[in-house]
Every structure is written in structure tokens, then in C-alpha cells.
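Session log. Operator J.P. requested a structure for one protein chain; no other inputs attached. Running the standard single-chain path with C-alpha cell output.
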Amino acid sequence: MTEDVVRMLGFATLGSRLKRIGEKLQAQTQDLAVELAGTDLPTPHNPVLAALDRHGSSSIGDLARALGQSQPGVTRMINKMKADGLVEVIPSAADRRVSTVALTGKGCRLVEHLKATLWPAVSFAVADACAGLDGSLLDQLDRLEDALTQKTLSVRQAGREVPDWASLAPTRKERS
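Structure written below.
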């Protein structure tokens, strides 16, 4: 068996480890999106839709800050979502360099569908994968990565009733 060098090096490769776990979560979320919500929406677009749903129309800069992502990366996502008819981009009359992004009717309908299906299912399945984690950060990452390998998010969600998204998504006050 090949040694897992990223795991073995611990904190020295923490960024690579988190990226690997993140990629696994995104891939499994994508699978669940197709299975449960019937959409092939790229997983990274979910936070953009959620931010627009929570905060309303926003500039690309505000979205980038809210998501903790680069402005060029958010711009690429917005352009793809615009091509898919999920958002509209409205240039500012006062400053043409600034545009406001808003959900279209199609985008709003998709968000409501995701809030009823995918988002609560992913929240539940990831919480299930994280259940019982304790100890050092590296030990917790070991157990989380093993849990995601042994039982995917789809398997964790299979046969369960989808919980209400509103009960799972903490408000800004609850997170503070």
C-alpha cells in the first residue's frame, strides 16, 4: 500500500490536506446535487446563490468579500451563471466599473428548490460525517477524511427525510 504522504506530514501539508478534503466534499456534493436535486449546477455556485438569496442584489466585490474568494474567480462564476440565466448583471449608472448582480426568476426558483432539497441534505450529511470528532485538529481531519471515504454524502443522506433548510442555516447573529 502506498503511504499517504500528505497525511503523514501533518501540519507541514495542512493546506494540501484541507484542499483534498474540500475537493472530496465538493465532488460528493456534486453527486448529491444530481441525485437529490436533479441539477448539474457546479458546486462552487451554491454559496453565490446563497449569498444573493440572503443579502439580495450585490456587487461582485461585495460577493467576493462575503465568500472570501477572489474577485476574478467570482466574476467567472457570475458570467457562467448569467449564461445559464440564473443571474443578471446590471451596470451602475453612476460608475460603469461597478455592476450589481441579482437573481433572475429562474435563479430564485432554483434557490428555493436547493433550499428544499440539496442544501439541507448536504448540511445533514456533512454534520453526520463530522459527528463525534474530537482530539487534535490532525486527528479530527484523519477521522473526517476516513469517514468521507468510507461513506459518501449520498449514502449518509439516502432514505432520510430532507430537513428544513431554515432550521439548519444559522443566521448572521447565530454565527457571531
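Operator note: Confidence is low (pLDDT under 50) at residues 171-176.
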